[in-house]
Amino acid sequence: MARKSVSLGSRIGVLSTFPATAGTTRELIEEAARAAGRTVEIVGVLEERALQALLAGSEEEHDRLFLEAAAKLAGQPGLDAIVLAQVSMARLASKAAVGVAVPVLNSLDTSLAAVRSLLAGQ
Questions:
Q1: What SS3 state is found at 70?
Q2: pLDDT band at 87 (very low <50, low <70, confident <90, very high)
Q3: For a designed S-S bond to 108, which of 9, 24, 88, 90 qualifies (C-beta 3.0 to 4.6 A apart)?
Q4: How far apart are CA 105 and CA 84, in angstroms?
């Protein structure tokens, strides 16, 4: 996910609901950029209320808050990609991508694609 986002451009949006994941994802993207000899700007949106709703048992409220945050991030000018920072967000990736002009990446899909690519090369 980090390598893919860096390959798409230099302005990367990151959406997270858990603060620790926001930092880890930022570090992974910066590391991938350094390895590729590129510079990136990371635009982060942290929506902790979505996590709190999920922990309180309200999946519907979580999803609503998450999708609102995704739309807010997608509205940032000049993004080349949006990264969903937590694997649990993969189930909402297609909804988050509706009407968004840039790729919306999640670690589940990009990891599976990388594994398939490696297996195809064997």
A1: helix
A2: confident
A3: 90
A4: 6
Joined together, the tokens standing for residue 28 give 């992974």
CATH at 83:
3.40.50.1860
What's the pLDDT tens digit per position in 13-56?
999 999 999 999 999 999 999 999 999 999 999 999 999 999 99
DSSP character string of 97-120? TTT-SS-EEEHHHHHHHHHHHHHH
Q: How far apart are CA 54 and CA 108, in angstroms?
A: 20
pTM of the model: 0.87
Q: What is the DSSP letter of 11?
A: E
| The token pair that represents 3 in the structure block | 């390598």
pLDDT computed for residue 45 by the predictor: 95
To 5 degrees, how large is the angle CA 102–CA 26–CA 71?
35
| Strands of 41-46's sheet in order across | 41-46, 11-16, 81-84, 104-106
- Cβ atoms of 74 and 100 within 8 Å: the answer is yes
Domain hosting 76: range is 2-101
Query: Does the residue 114 lie in any domain?
Result: no
